[in-house]
């Protein structure tokens, strides 16, 4: 595979990230700001056709799972760690199986992955058109990469510690999303590597934990997701804005196209209001759901990073937050996010538990 076609007007055309080198070193070594906020313009995003790779997976995901040395389900509800494989060695059927596993388990983890940023981009591009963030810092020649970077200058870093789904205000927010951490904070006792864990929560499990009456009500609702505050902050802090900021209406409950399961789809970062409800009532409902996400520990998995570990999660069916407990130490990783379908609710879809129970009953009758 090769890299996607680069936008024509990227800044710093003289710069190229060398293969096998972290941009954390190479960009600054070239005398450029990192992450880079040099302004450039992109066309506004428009709806594109999308077919999830997980739809082509084997029902048992046998191509992938037969190649691993171990499979560890980290909690009953969410999170699976695979050992014994390198992502760069996977063939297309194995990638399809991986997409289906991520769709089912919410997030899949792999340690000790030997891939550079170019290989990460190439791998992620198999799953869909790569998202370029409207205002976040980038690598100058690789705009699809969102550097996850905090150091001694991140004095307000704790303000980012909010449960969210990435850029849910987009017309087609990301689905499968990939983060590789290459530099971890030495924030432990005696300068040991510690801190900067990430927590994910299952939208499937949280949704099915709600009462049937509340679920039925939520399925009638839509919510406004907004990128305006993020855009205003960028302009206020001398950042850059690459596209016209948008607000988008999405269903409060959406259906995953691979699993067919319903999942809660609101988040504290970008969901601003419930459409058609009095704001006071809508805000109370949203706050209740946000608290369920944050306090539902049985629906969460906490991941302790190691160098070159990778997390691949489904941004449609999970929420996540990074733990900012390492100031003023350095933490750095690279995230790439393929866009997925426009969120929708299939009225015939089921909760995860309902679907699995139905499958078990069908198997008994065969």
UniProtKB/TrEMBL annotation:
User: Keyword Translocase: yes or no?
Assistant: no
Q: Does the keyword Oxidoreductase apply?
A: yes
Q: Where is the composition biased (Basic and acidic residues)?
A: 349-366
InterPro entries membership:
AtsK-like (IPR051323), TauD-like_sf (IPR042098), TauD/TfdA-like (IPR003819)
Q: Which GO terms describe its molecular function?
A: dioxygenase activity
Q: Which UniProt keywords apply?
A: Dioxygenase, Iron, Metal-binding, Oxidoreductase
Instruction: Kindly provide the name given to this protein in its UniProt entry.
Output: TfdA family taurine dioxygenase
Q: Which organism is this entry from?
A: Aspergillus pseudoustus
